[in-house]
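Question (not urgent): is this output format expected?
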Amino acid sequence: MRSTSVILVRFLSIIATLLAISLCNGNTGVPCKDNERRALLMFKQELHDSSNRLSSWVGHGEGDCCTWLGVVCGNLTGHVRELHLGNYYLGGKLNPSLLNLSSLNYLDLSNNDFDGILIPNFFGSLTSLRHLDLSQANFQGIIPHQLGNLSSLRYLDLHGNYFEVNNLQWISGLSMLQHLDLSGVNLSKASDSIQETNMASNSLLEYLDMSDCRLRRIPGGIANMASLRVLNLSRNSINSTIPKWLYSLSHLESLFLSDNGLYGEISTSIGNLTAIVNLDVSHNQLWGEIPNSFENLCKLMFLDLSWNLVSGRASEIFQSLSRCTSSQLESISLSNSISGPIPKSIQNLSLLKILDISNNSMKGDVTEVHFTNLSRLQELFANENSLTLKTCREWLPPFQLHVLFLDSWNLGPELPSWLQRQKYLEQLSISNTGISGTIPIWFWNFSYLGLSFVDLSGNQLYGQVPRIVTAPSAVIDLSSNKFTGSLPLVSATVAVLDLSNSSFSGSIFHFFCDRMDESKQMTSLYLRNNHLTGEIPECWMNWKNLIVINLDNNHLTGNIPSTIGDLIFLQSLQLRNNHLSGEVSLSLQKCRNLIVVDLGENDFVGSIPTWIGKSLSQLMVLVLRSNKLHGDIPRELCRLVKVQILDLANNDLVGAVPTCFSNFKAMTNVSERSYTMSNSFFRLHGTYLDNVILMRKFNPAFGVGRFGVTALDLSLNNISGEIPEELTSLVNLQLLDLSNNLLTGRIPSKMGGMEGLEYLDMSKNQLSGGIPLSMSNLTFLNHFNVAYNNLTGPIPKSTQLQSFDASSFIGTKLCGPPLRENCSTDAEKPGGSRT
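Got this back:
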């Protein structure tokens, strides 16, 4: 019996091998038809075959096209039935000679590059097609309605192109369709037709993907797709409740509705989806408690309800999820407003691999008992809760984690010793967890542990840090501790290193200049708020991958080294509050990708370099405040059209405010500002705003976490002349400080049009006339000061201006609230002068 089974297995293996060979080269033993061979050669002629994948497509005489790569013929007829041309790096045009392949039922042109051409209309005449895959092939334009003629089509994939659709009526012609992927197709113009389309004819559809399609509503026709197993409508703009009919799709196995505007309470009817395996409704505005009907979802393996307004107690939620004795749950994500302790019933979810309960309001103790049966757990995200881990020092966890995030837990006072036994740990984040003392020697060999991400920030760790050895492209954050001594040497494999807010001291020479034979992978380096001394060395040649350098708030001296110009990828250079001197280094003009330059609060001398405006055209933040710079503000700075924060305060600058500051597009156009901020350094490396000194002028909560802030600070200089009228075109400017200068003339009458202003200070100048009436439109002001000027007349009446203290107007001849001095009846209107 055993020998018979072995022979059968071997026989089936041989058959499978022969079939595989047949599918690869199309050789069936029956030669292809002459007209079909010629058709394929014509098709090849107009293609760009850059990788020469179609080199076997040759021969005008006796060549057998069934042996060509990517061609599959019928076993008995020799007719070409399938073309497998995906991932062939093809381009060019698509010849209609394919119409001569009368038996063609499978066409795959995916993952090629057709350079934005349209789908040819003749595709709608390939009426034998059952499978059409044009995904990721760089087509664009309108999807031809002729595709609706492919009544035999079972599989259609158009995702990853640049398509638009005016209506979807043609889909109703695809009555045999089982798989439809339109993800990424722009369906915004087809919104109404989607509702009207008779999708009842698509009752065989099992897979439907309309993610990233700019949908504003869930298409009602989906209700008729009784066979649907996979539905993906994620990343659209659907602003509605989840329709009740969705819960009647009894065959549904995967439902993806994330990143929409869905709202309303999670319905108990969700328990009707008893076939569901994957459920993702994350990043919406669903609210209420998780219904008990979840206990009916016994096939559920993947559940993501995170980033909604879901509430409730953790005990009830996990009891509901674990009540099904045959629970298949492998992944749970519940980042919401869940409260209470984690129940011990969580151990019943013995198949769990991923558990994300981060960013909740959970409290209480977590012990060994909670993890008793979680031997398959690989990723645990439980950060930002008020939980306490209470395990004995000898505890041997039943799991081997790859990822562990326990930020803001109470783990202290010691680093958990059981971490040493986690053999596969790749990411560890335990910031702000009350750990103190020195770090044990075994922990420092990150490379041996396999760690590529380590965050121990915000603890009470002290002592010296030895040499850091890591896995490739590692991210290490040891900031906000109490480490002392000199900076540690790091292996070339470190990509991001943050040693900020500690007590490292001494020279930085060895850190940068030792082991000069190594080419560093590091992209981001944060050493701010330490006690580092000495000059910045000329050792930047092997640090050419750096994108971010932050040495703020140390005791560094000397000039900016010339070799810093070798850092051609540098986007952010922050050297604020040191004792650096000399002129601003000419070498910086080589760093043409700079977005942030902060040299404030140093001892730099000379004039503002004109090359900043010419060479650093990508700058969004330029801070030169509190130095010893002199001379005029160069007009070349007006070329910085992307600048959002320009701070030249507290220098010895003279001359007039350049009228060409009106070129700052990010301060004049809100869409320009939003675009540059959201697609730049700021989202990649965190907000810079918290570190800019001028942000302290705002309301304390202003700069935290905000993108797109715009600010212009020229205060504490010797700038003279009038405030240029052109400055009022900066309608999206939020901070404007011109105080402590020698400005004369009137306040521009259109300044009230700068409706984005939240901070405005023109105090301690020589301004005359009155406050323009238009300034009553400044409804967002939280700081306003025109004190110590030659201003006259009544203060315009507005909610904002009257809300400020009288000190904002002291030292002037203004009258009216909030000043005690009443305006005389013969006083002129605001903006004029008093007699």
